[in-house]
Design goal:
The structure is a single chain. By secondary structure, the chain is of the alpha/beta class. The strands form seven sheets. Strands 6-7-11-5-12 form a five-stranded parallel beta sheet, sandwiched between helices. Helix 22 links the parallel strand 19 and strand 20. The longest helix has 33 residues, at 86-118. It is extended and about 125 Å long. The model is unreliable at 1-14, 47-58, 82-93 and 114-144 (pLDDT under 50).
């Protein structure tokens, strides 16, 4: 393809040819002077020659682009006519795309040069996300852009302004501003991002808040066109099958008008996508393995290598890439790799909020509370002397910003509830105070207990759950362990409130024991119980087996397992006969399910409990299938077989739940039967299921008996209703 542009619309712009412009540029680099002075020298037209007209330049650039695209399409059409000469077609295709890239780069370089020399915006740009040219012939002529020196001046006093709303993070703010200023001091090479920034620090210390406040202030000062921060949660791309969704979202983020792209939860992202993200940081671009085109705003992959306007590369040009996490830089290096860390421009770490910072935050929240109460409820709120102190010391210091703000949000909601429940005059005065750890509001002679009005999320019926646990026969050690969890979490909450370090307890468990020993029942109670004490957010029990986790063909297992994990987040995932997932080293599907499960446990460790159930010996072998299993399941709870006495109690409980009672005369025979069965074949007799089967059998036999005895008690099961002869089979 002919790449000589001298015959294009750039051949004569204003009163100068392209050759004269290029010669003047070379002379300028060599001897200095302005472009217009050098144009006068090389053209011989003198300095009185008319200057370049922006409209004609824009029109010329647009025409050049159209000509290049027409040339490319013509070449593609010629390639299609080659017929079956596959090798030649492939060679031409490669050359076509190389020529297109070269043309795009030449036009981009010329555009940049003209913009820099004349101080005007040109109506043709290289799109950073699409690897193609777009015409902006309808755009109005742009005003002269501010120089880098003028932009840098706009950073003056920025830290002081941001510190009016972000407290206790002076050093963090200073480094964050440097990160935003850096590309104006040291412009990056195309196509790299303006800067790649790493934000770290404990949760709720102000990382996000400081970033958004800085973007807002830079927009006010005219450094950014808008204050938008595009947030991309990488934690949702947990499976390799989500590649198209990932690419579509990444395309949207890079094509957005936001100058700042914020990436969250990259720790939970699938490794293959982290490689793409790292490429954007390290190289400034991501070359796609497939070819895509835009159809109705969506990326669609195409097999035709001759398709026009192909999207083959994403670039980070013109964007700030921000990564936020609680992890240290060393731990992130283990996830993203050393080249990613080395490519970062700035690292900003928040400090732990001290009492002075928390007090400033509390003062700001109190002022906002008074303003909102006045505006929304027509209350004049006045705090007592101890109210502010209470909000500082009793809010969870470990939570930083969140602890203080949650407290004031709760007070605001309680005042709203008070307004709904009572009639108050306009501008009613509310004096807020603290009495015995409770928030009170005094209006004239009435006192309102705001703590009682504070909204609480559903925490479950703890007393009812405890009663259900108590009603379970036997399992004393199991119940002791479960109930002990509440005390542990209470202590950890107190430590958090005092600003002390909170220890992490692995909540995942292994239940071992024979069928019918109550494993599923206890798992269901645990899910509700931990929801009620605030450890879990959902409290649901998701019960699955191998068939629910292992796929039937290659590529099916991981999505299937991840779907199950997602359904259990916030509750308990109970995997019965978990040892069946591992059928030896040749069981690639089962091993893939186990690997996916281990990753899912790690990614959702704060809001998911996994319980594995099965026989003791088989579970020991299962734990060897993955090196990460044993360490994640330190709590092994054995469910013993029921005794005969316990099975008798279980039988009476089951009968009661069905509206029946067992005649006392039947107790000796039932007890002897259960003792005999458990002594001979407890492993496969069913334990609690044996008791249930006997009650259901007795109810059926009683129905037959009542036909012959119509006056007999309808709700009483007699000894003769139980068939207790066959001990060895456990039937009848």
């Amino acid at each position: 393809m002919d790449r000589d542009l001298s015959g294009s619309a750039f051949g004569n712009v204003g009163n100068y040819t392209l050759e004269e412009i290029e010669a003047a540029q070379k002379l300028k680099k060599k001897n200095g002077g302005t472009l217009m002075e050098n144009l006068a020298k090389v053209s011989g037209k003198g300095t009185s020659a008319p200057t370049m007209n922006f409209d004609s330049l824009t029109s010329a650039a647009n025409t050049a682009t159209a000509q290049m695209e027409a040339m490319l399409k013509a070449a593609q059409a010629r390639a299609k006519n080659i017929g079956k000469a596959n090798t030649d077609v492939s060679t031409m295709n490669d050359q076509l795309f190389k020529n297109q890239d070269t043309l795009n780069q030449e036009l981009a370089n010329l555009t940049k040069s003209l913009r820099d020399d004349f101080g005007i915006g040109v109506g043709v740009t290289g799109t950073s996300a699409l690897d193609r040219l777009e015409s902006t012939s309808t755009a109005a002529p742009a005003q002269a852009e501010a120089t880098r020196e003028e932009i840098l001046e706009k950073f003056n006093g920025l830290a002081t302004e941001i510190e009016k709303t972000v407290f206790g993070q002076e050093e963090f703010i200073k480094k964050l501003i440097i990160a935003f200023k850096r590309p104006f001091v040291m412009p990056p090479e195309e196509p790299k991002a303006l800067n790649c920034v790493f934000l770290s620090g404990k949760n709720d210390t102000g990382k996000h808040f400081a970033l958004f406040e800085t973007a807002k202030e830079l927009s006010k000062r005219g450094v950014f066109k808008n204050s938008d921060v595009k947030v991309m949660d990488l934690g949702i791309y947990t499976d390799a099958s989500m590649e198209k969704l990932f690419l579509q979202d990444m395309y949207s983020a890079l094509s957005s008008n936001s100058k700042v792209l914020l990436f969250e939860n990259f720790e939970n992202c699938h490794p293959s996508f982290l490689t793409h993200v790292a490429s954007l940081v390290i190289d400034g671009q991501l070359r796609l393995s497939e070819r895509y085109v835009m159809q109705k705003g969506q990326l669609v992959n195409v097999q035709n290598s001759l398709a026009s306007e192909v999207v083959s590369t994403f670039t980070a040009s013109g964007k700030y890439l921000i990564f936020v996490t609680e992890k240290s830089i060393d731990k992130v290096a283990g996830i993203m790799g050393a080249p990613f860390i080395n490519a970062l421009g700035d690292v900003c770490v928040t400090a732990k909020l001290d009492d002075a910072a928390i007090r400033k935050i509390a003062e700001g929240e109190l002022a906002e509370l008074k303003e909102k109460a006045k505006e929304r409820f027509f209350f004049n709120v006045e705090p007592a002397e101890d109210f502010l102190d209470y909000s500082v010391t009793k809010s969870e210091r470990q939570a930083g910003l969140k602890g203080v703000r949650d407290f004031y949000d709760g007070v605001l909601q309680a005042l709203a509830q008070a307004k709904l429940e009572n009639d108050y005059p306009k501008d009613a005065k509310m004096l807020l105070s603290i009495e015995d750890g409770r928030v009170m509001a005094k209006h004239e002679e009435s006192v309102i207990d705001l703590t009682a009005l504070l909204p609480e999320g559903y925490r479950g019926e703890i007393d009812e759950i405890r009663k259900e646990m108590d009603d379970i026969v036997g399992l004393a050690k199991v119940k002791e362990y479960v109930m002990g969890l509440e005390e542990y979490y209470k202590v950890q909450k107190r430590r958090s409130e005092e600003g002390l370090k909170v220890s992490e307890l692995s909540k995942h468990m292994i239940f071992t024991g024979n069928p019918g020993t109550g494993k599923t029942t206890i798992a269901r109670i645990i899910s509700k119980y931990l929801k009620s004490i605030g450890v879990l957010t959902g409290g649901q029990l998701v019960e699955v087996s191998r068939a629910d986790l292992v796929g039937r063909y290659v590529g099916h297992t991981a999505p299937l397992t991840n779907k199950v994990i997602s359904s259990a987040i916030g509750g308990v995932l109970f995997i019965d006969e978990a040892y069946s997932l591992y059928r030896g080293r040749d069981d690639s599907f089962g091993l893939e399910a186990i690997d996916t499960l281990v990753k899912g446990i790690e990614d959702n460790r704060d809001n998911l409990i996994v319980i594995l159930a099965g026989y003791s010996k088989e579970m020991e072998q299962f734990l060897t299938s993955n090196s990460g299993l044993k360490s994640r399941f330190p709590n092994v709870i054995h469910f013993p077989d029921y005794t005969g006495e316990e099975l008798l109690l279980i039988s009476k409980s089951i009968a009661k739940s069905k509206g029946y009672t067992i005649d006392e005369g039947a107790d000796p025979a039932l007890l002897a039967y259960f003792n005999a069965v458990q002594a001979v074949r407890a492993t496969d007799a069913g334990n609690g299921r044996l008791a249930r089967n006997k009650i259901e059998e007795a109810v059926l036999n009683q129905s037959k008996r009542l036909v012959a005895e119509p006056d007999a008690e309808l709700s009483v099961l007699l000894s003769q209703d139980f068939d207790l002869n066959d001990v060895m089979s456990g039937e009848k």
